[in-house]
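Budget justification note: compute hours in this period were largely spent on complex prediction jobs such as the one shown. Inputs:
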Amino acid sequence: MDHPSGERGEPLLEMAGAAFGYGRRAVLRDLDLSIARGDFVGLVGPNGVGKTTLARGILGTLRPLTGTVRYFPRRPRFGYVPQRRTLDPLFPLTTLDIVLMARLSADTLRPFDAADRARAREAIESVGLADRAGSMYRDLSGGLQQRALIARALAAEPEALVLDEPTAGMDLLSAAAVLELIRELHARRGLTVILISHALDEVAAAVKSLILIEGPGRMMVGSKESVLTEENLTRLYGAPIRVGHALGGVVVRPEAGNGGNG
Amino acid sequence: MEPILSAFQLPFMRAALLAGCAAGAVCSLLGVYVLLNRIVFLGAALAQLSAAGIAFGFLIGVHATTPAILFAVIGVLILSLRPGASRIPADGILGIVFAVGWAASVLMVSRSAQGAEELNFMLQGNILTATHGDVRLLLWLLGGIGALHLLFARPFVFVSFDPETAQTLGLSTRFWSFMLYPTIGATIAVTIHIVGILVVFALLVLPPIGGLLLGRRLPSVFALSVLIAVTGVFVGLLLSFHADLPSGATIVAVLGALVALARVLRRAHA
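Corresponding output:
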């Protein structure tokens, strides 16, 4: 589980002139993008701009309307962590039940065996939830639920991890702990990580490079220093944005007097 | 105790008990998915669509079960497509199906010879008139649905809980939804003809609520749901026999009381 197939730096996927959308309506178009193995990429942009749509395109669950998406040498095993709020707490499932879902394969008739259970428990342990394996998922705090979902993604033995707004709705400490866990997984396992968020400074503190979606046909890709500039962000939000550094991280704030409209 | 249970020595009561228990078990099993997927109104709309199918059968003079299944399965397939760009909310579409299905039933039955009497029978149903053929049909249905869910409970639950991740891991959400939803439609269509709309809808909703209140994990929720449904049918039939009450309404009232009891037990336990 510690060494994903393929060498760090080798291409994982490439998009060329890709458009993604629903029905015939393109939410994103003219996307040219490449992600390499071992990358730690942030996917950022304002709410509703199409971040989740692009994530679906990367995962291969949404086919491009035009253009191509190529994987090297084949579609990698993805571990996906969806937005927590999309999961209904009505379901009476334990942490272990949820993590075991990742062990369901196309052969749905095959019962879970000892190896599946061992993988699931190993994943649960790796996110620090060993004592919560039998707890009901709905009874866990937001931070622990997020850890459970990351454990499920890890139980799939992924080559790449895609996390959609993993810190949404969390308090400061829980969010920091989840981001630290993601950073550690990237460093320790060499996993390719694609982190989706609308919280710019939070993502900037964690990732190496950024994909900034500005609109249907406008996207910026590069190092976080080249993407997160005052000029780019002011254009994106249509209001003056300041970018600074504090406590060793990037801080992004609307200029004084422009923070009340959003 | 023996004089009370002697009601089931009568052949029609035995058939009603078997039919009710089989319908109860199958509806309450599928009802857990109906509740978890928060599609209770879909159950009501499908029940009405099945009733329209039965009315259509009356009108053209064919056995009612076939058009009822056809209407329900076609309806559920269309409803499960969920066009993303539609300006009509999903609940609104179900409301249209419910209202138009109801009106279509009334209009079609009004053109048949027996008219209102048939409509009344169709809407209320009468479990006491269940035949051996009905019981056989329901037992087959129970066996089929039970086997399907024993074999495929895990993908059904995964796709219901988190379709996005299921798809990422290679499960076809479309395939599993198409396996689940038409089974719900066909079950409603078959059972409605035998026990009536009211009882079918109650069996789809009330026992699973009780199961979710009392059960800790999914297997126990399914088991408790079936147990509550079978208990409701058994006690309801006995009460209706001895107090000379309408059987369907009595079963639903008992199911309601069992859910209230489950709520009390849940609170006491909490």
